[in-house]
Amino acid sequence: MKKQASSLHRKRKRTRNSLLMESLLYTGDKNTDTRIRLIQYEANGYSSSDITDIKKLHGALKGSSIYWITVSGMSNPEKIEQLGNLLGLHRLDIQDILTAQHISKIEIYEDKTLLLVNTFFYNGKELQQEHLGIVLGQDFVVSFQESSQPLFENVLKAIEANTTKVRNRSVDFLFGLLCNNILSNYIETVAQLEEDLDNLEEELSTGNPSDDFLIRLQQKRHDYLQMRKSITPLKENFNKLTFNDNSLMKEENLIYLNDLRDRLNFIVQSLEICHETMKSLMELYVSSNDMKMNEIMKRLTAVTTLFIPLTFVVGVWGMNFQFMPELGWKYGYLAAWIVMLLIAVAVGWYIKKRKWF
């Protein structure tokens, strides 16, 4: 129970990049080595290679191909900064990419679009969070992630197999596929949260929840707040992708963005349902505890009511007066017991008749 309670307050490192810092820092807590991979494709071909020297990447980004640069791991901020400078990213944008606690946002520039977002997935019972950055250029997409998790593995397989002729499409379609992957991940994670809340509701309906019920409910509330903190700003910024002046999003692909916006709205609605469910569970849990306490108080009151007249009888016969008429009676003790038993039966019958117990 203590381990669960302590996990509620687990926090990321609070290191911050500053405009006055000469070198940028990665502020997350994942120690994955930085690996840069270049995926180059066109209608008739596909190739993939690891990039160890950023300078060589400049010469590779030429021709009519579409380029997808994947960056896994941010433990080497110097390499991230070097890549960002090569792509013409502003220093503030590179700083935001390296800031794991950054709020989700979309920035539109004349020749680029930057998406910063957090993705989520459950590792067993624990919610994991990962910071992502995606940059869309004229003929390239760059994806940054904190770990080496295969978050976009299905997109890579689609390019390799040219599924639905994905290699014949423009670079903004690749950007849309990556966004779709992120939203699909949201849907799966929110669905898992809903399922966990349903299990808690079912447990509570039995009338006998486990001792750590409240801790588990609080953990789910913590998960909900984490997701809402990232997803709500993304919903507010998403229209920037469809209404912008840099012409990176082709008109024929806007229909896919509209579909993504609908999915995002569905995710936000699902989160709101989770919020209402958690509120109801908390209220039901408190009400259930109050009902249990009332039952206990009723039983204690009934017992007390039974013993009050008996205490009176014992108190009267327990007085130490010299001349009491019953003191010399041979059957006085037995008579006292009979009187007390009759009183107890009468009081119990009266309580039962009145349905007080």
Commentary on this structure:
Keywords: Cell membrane, Ion transport, Magnesium, Membrane, Transmembrane, Transmembrane helix, Transport. GO terms for molecular function: cobalt ion binding; cobalt ion transmembrane transporter activity; magnesium ion binding; magnesium ion transmembrane transporter activity. The chain contains 10 helices and 7 strands. The protein has a 7-stranded mixed sheet, with helices on both faces. Strand 4 and strand 5 form a beta hairpin. The N terminus is likely disordered. The protein is of the alpha+beta class. Helix 3 runs antiparallel to helix 4.
Q: Summarize this, please?
A:
By secondary structure, the chain is an alpha+beta fold.
What's the shape?
rod-shaped
Estimate percent helicity.
40-55%
Number of strands: 7
Main pleated sheet: 7 strands, mixed
Distance between the termini: 36 Å
Identify low-pLDDT runs.
Answer: 1-13
Global Rg: 34 Å
Structural class: alpha+beta
Mean pLDDT: 86
| Strand and helix order | HEEHEHHEEEEHHHHHH
Count of DSSP-assigned helices: 10
Give me the side-by-side strand order of the main sheet.
2-1-3-7-6-5-4
**Approximate strand percentage:** 15-25%
Protein name: Magnesium transport protein CorA
InterPro entries: CorA_cytoplasmic_dom (IPR045861), CorA_TM1_TM2 (IPR045863), Mg/Co-transport_prot_CorA (IPR004488), MgTranspt_CorA/ZnTranspt_ZntB (IPR002523)
Family: Belongs to the CorA metal ion transporter (MIT) (TC 1.A.35) family.
GO molecular function: cobalt ion binding; cobalt ion transmembrane transporter activity; magnesium ion binding; magnesium ion transmembrane transporter activity
